[in-house]
Description:
Layout: H1 4-13, H2 19-30, H3 38-51, E1 55-59, H4 65-73, E2 78-83, H5 86-98, E3 105-109, H6 116-120, E4 125-130, H7 137-144, E5 148-157, H8 175-193, E6 197-202, E7 208-213
Parallel strand pairs: 1-2, 1-4, 2-3, 4-5
Antiparallel strand pairs: 5-7, 6-7
Helix pairs in contact: 3-4
Amino acid sequence: MLDHDVITYVENLIPESSPYVKQMEEFAKQHEVPIMEKVGIEVLLLLLSMQQPKRIFEIGTAIGYSAIRMATHLPQTQIVTVELDEERYHQANKHIHELGLENRIKTFLGDALSISEEVKQYGPFDALFIDATKAKYKKFFALYEPMLAEDGIIYSDNVLFKGTVARDRSELKTRRQRTLVRKLDEYNQMLSTLEGYKTTIIPVGDGIAVTKKMK
């Protein structure tokens, strides 16, 4: 992971966001809503702009930040997204409505592991973006990978979890933290050896795994 000075330097090179996006970022900071880090979202948007997916499925809407960033950056793309928390789901819909993106972003309320049949009707998806409960990443992947289009790409955020996956787990304070880090490590190991896919992990933000489906 990059040190703080380097991250600050890179962040200062990023063009200023729109007033509405800045407002969402401030809201997330004040209310401790997890959204992608500034450099991480820029890298994701760059990768998506090169891929030009027609349909994206996102697991983990939160307040709609990343879905809105993707939709405004990719004007021809349709996005389907699911959020477990009802309050955040309503906040996301409010933001999506205020920006006039209702026709391009379809939101679901519920557990992504329970609504696959509803989501399936909107596929296949050119890109999957996994950014929800980290301990469930392997389950999310297994459930939704079959909905990936040929040559599709799966993007997984937070796979380095502040660098803890690379450190001694005995240093972690709680059993829950150790379990979470173990499951993330297992997910990364799975991606690196998955037949028919090529994965690289980019150490920006909190770590983004890019998993490309090979022909």
